[in-house]
């Protein structure tokens, strides 16, 4: 078993498709180990995306991520990191394969509906950023 960190981003919550994304998460075989809805401050979004601080899209990304509530999750499955990234599809919804969440629910590379950790180290950092140990038991 492996755990990964996921976000249902503010665009998906605003469009009222969070429930559809959650249903898909469950039907694809993930166990939801932890879940919370939060409205990130700009500073909290900046801390989360610190690795992207020097990228040109950092300001827009952190404005967007603090623009409304999102849902943060701990997902568990065999090979969860890769499996969740496959289900999300390419970062840019225009390039995402049919049947993926970003193809179905994303509108642009910024408004791309979901986030997922890209490696075990980032999953550990990202889960720890949002969840206390006792929530992940
Ligand atoms: P996410 O998986 O949350 O990780 C960083 C986010 O930055 C990414 O999804 C995109 O929504 C956003 N982003 C905006 N522009 C780019 C870009 N050129 N390359 C990668 N990510 C980008």
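^ structure tokens above, recovered residues below v
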């Amino acid at each position: 078993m492996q755990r990964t960190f996921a976000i249902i981003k503010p665009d998906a919550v605003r469009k009222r498709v969070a429930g559809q994304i959650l249903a898909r998460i469950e039907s694809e075989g993930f166990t939801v180990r932890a879940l919370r809805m939060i409205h990130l401050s700009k500073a909290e979004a900046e801390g989360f995306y610190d690795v992207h601080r020097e990228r040109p899209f950092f300001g827009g990304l952190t404005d967007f991520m603090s623009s409304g509530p999102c849902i943060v999750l701990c997902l568990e499955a065999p090979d969860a990191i890769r499996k969740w990234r496959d289900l999300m599809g390419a970062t840019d919804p225009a390039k995402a394969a049919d049947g993926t969440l970003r193809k179905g629910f994303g509108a642009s590379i910024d408004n791309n509906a979901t986030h997922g950790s890209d490696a075990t180290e980032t999953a550990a950092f990202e889960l720890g950023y949002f969840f206390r140990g006792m929530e992940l038991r």
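The chain has one domain: 2-132.
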